[in-house]
Write a structure and sequence with these properties.
Two copies of one chain form a homodimer. The first copy, chain A, has 355 residues and is an alpha+beta fold. Chain A has two domains: 3-126, 3-Layer(aba) Sandwich (Creatine Amidinohydrolase, Chain A, domain 1); 131-354, Creatinase/methionine aminopeptidase superfamily (Creatine Amidinohydrolase, Alpha-Beta Complex). Helix content of chain A is 34%, strand content 23%. Chain A has helices at 3-16, 27-34, 60-66, 78-84, 100-109, 121-126, 131-153, 161-174, 236-254, 262-275; strands at residues 21-24, 41-46, 52-55, 71-74, 89-93, 113-117, 179-180, 185-188, 209-214, 216-218, 221-222, 225-231, 287-289, 296-300, 313-316, 319-322, 326-329, 332-335, 342-343, 353-354. Chain A has a six-stranded mixed beta sheet with strand order 4-3-2-1-5-6, sandwiched between helices. Chain A has a four-stranded mixed beta sheet with strand order 8-9-12-20, covered by helices on one side. Chain A has a three-stranded antiparallel beta sheet with strand order 7-10-11. The interface between A and B is medium-sized, with 28 and 27 residues.
Chain lengths: 355, 355
């Protein structure tokens, strides 16, 4: 789908809400609707008439290259530039991200307009990925899988968490990632009990659990993958915990299907942990949408009301965390379809005993 | 200065504004006032009584370690948790970053409070760095300088921009940076004319200008450095442009002194470019504060009213950009003192002809 087609979907959504247009100021949403990859820009999308994109002088040439089909205005005052180009009416603002001060200024600049919070209207469109987006996510997941496979083929015992994390990140870049999707979580031994652990100088030892939560970014799209392996032979406790997480994760993934309640996969993954006796050791969320942001709508939670839609991409990431001892997390990036969920993270989830 | 001392300065600033307290929701400001390095947190700072820090369950242990001296509340609802702990009165909000929706929710949760936009009150405190901050910035600048020196000692011609940028980033990490301060801008040949250029697969050639805008991050503090070198012998045009930028940059740095108008350094750097005939080829801003954010108050501009204060840290970064041909930028991170400016970026600014 082209950016123009995405804007058409937005115009339809705005018309449904009786809005004359939307001030799109959230930069991720600007990128989604235009393809613009710079660090400062906005787009005014009216229901009637043509959109206007605005950025500052640093991005004059880039805007011309990335948005050949949209009028663009070079200005340091994005809000002022948009305000000038509105017709009277009720316009939406992205009230979940627009600051109180920006809102006040816009109201002052355009006193003839009625401004109304339009909620997460663009985020809602972004939940359902088009072909271009799925291709980028698929590639990001492939690179992530290949990178981890490469790293665990090498020597690990005796190296630091930080060193292994850097190799993993470097390998993703070597394999074609434009960047890493987020700072790699790489935890070993007792550190695996910390859900969000920054790599340290701890030296990996035989018998350790090793947990890597990482991903590649391709064309702005983020992969999010976690695997936990054992360095050497797994002991009985490690096997038990691993099996419990693996079972829970499979139960959650199984329900990531079109038409199924989002809360159902949450319930299934939790029920599995409850039956194995490990629910209390699970302390994070179960999953989230992923795309132009590493965490985006929809979020998997028991409180989430609503059904899954085909072409939504989500993570499923149960874990068990036992302070002082260790932990296991398994996470895939998954494409929702009308049939079986398509797991984009192609790496095995069997327990790997490395070296 | 400890986080507690920073909070005391904030309390004094709030009392001056007749505020009973501040809802600190901007995460960078939360870090400044608490030392907390997680990704979700807030702090309610009352003028009377003790502050309360709030974060979610993921950061329970981290909060206990990083903020031993502040009461902390574990909750998913930071705004709700803060609202519960206020006494009636007029409280400040960070209206430049708080979203319209968050503001509306807070007003609903705490109907007895009057909420008032408190502007950039914490950002204003952050302009003047304490000893701990200056030490981190100094170290980040040292690492940046050593990394670039290391990289330009090696072979450059025949390698891609992307490859050299990765080596530069990896070298900063090897030298002790916790992360890179921002995605490295590394431009060669005609690409040096683009002020913010993402590294490509262009192969570096003899005779190229090579521009690197990069920095290390240490303890959350960012270095920001740009150097431009010539691969081989510089031609007359390269020498002319380099000398013009070097002169402008020195003129701007010279006025980064306590008690001098911020606008004066802007005027001096521009006057230098005007006298050399290159002012029209300078298309960006001249500099900005740097600290916990890569761009923070104060920003150097002709329109800036106000004088510099000792212990403010700023960049000075004039450039000349000639589309299709090339460009030069020189940028230092500079500590303002009562006397001569202290340039934290210790790398030479003489024109280097490499290899």
């Amino acid at each position: 789908m082209t950016a123009a087609a995405r804007r058409s979907r937005l115009v339809a959504a705005l018309a449904d809400r009786d809005l004359a247009g939307l001030f799109v100021t959230n930069l991720v949403n600007v990128r989604y609707l235009t393809g613009f990859t710079g660090s400062n820009g906005a787009i005014l999308v009216p229901v009637e008439g043509e959109p206007v994109f605005l950025t500052d002088g640093r991005y004059r040439d880039q805007a011309a290259a990335e948005l050949p089909d949209v009028e663009h205005v070079i200005t340091r005052d994005l809000l002022g530039g948009m305000a000038e180009r509105t017709a009277p009416g009720t316009y939406g603002i992205e009230s979940h991200t627009m600051s109180v001060d920006a809102h006040a200024r816009l109201a002052e600049l355009a006193p003839a307009l009625t401004l109304r919070g339009a909620g997460r209207v663009v985020e809602s469109l972004r939940e359902v990925k088009d072909d271009v987006e799925v291709a980028a996510l698929r590639r990001a997941c492939e690179i992530s899988t290949r990178a981890l496979q490469t790293v665990i083929e090498g020597r690990l015992v005796g190296r630091t968490e930080r060193d292994v994390a850097r190799e993993l990140e470097g390998t993703m870049l070597d394999l074609g990632a434009e960047a890493v999707a987020f700072d790699t979580i790489l935890a070993s031994g007792p550190n695996t009990a910390i859900p969000h652990h920054s790599p340290t100088d701890r030296v990996l030892a035989a018998g350790d659990l090793l947990k890597a939560d990482f991903g590649a970014r391709v064309d702005g799209y983020h992969a999010d993958c976690t695997r936990t392996v054992v360095l050497g032979r797994a002991d009985a406790w490690q096997r038990e915990v691993y099996a419990a997480v693996q079972h829970s994760q499979a139960a959650g993934v199984e329900l990531l299907r079109e038409g199924v309640e989002v809360a159902a996969s949450d319930a299934a993954a939790r029920a599995s942990l409850e039956s194995s006796g490990w629910l209390e050791a699970f302390t994070t969320g179960l999953g989230h949408g992923v795309g132009l942001e590493i965490h985006e709508d929809p979020f998997i939670a028991g409180s989430h009301t609503g059904k899954l839609t085909s072409r939504t991409v989500l993570t499923m990431e149960p874990g068990i965390y036992v302070p002082g001892r260790g932990g296991v997390r398994i996470e895939d990036t998954v494409l929702v379809t009308a049939g079986a969920p398509e797991v984009l993270t192609t790496m095995t989830k069997d327990l790997l005993e490395i070296g």
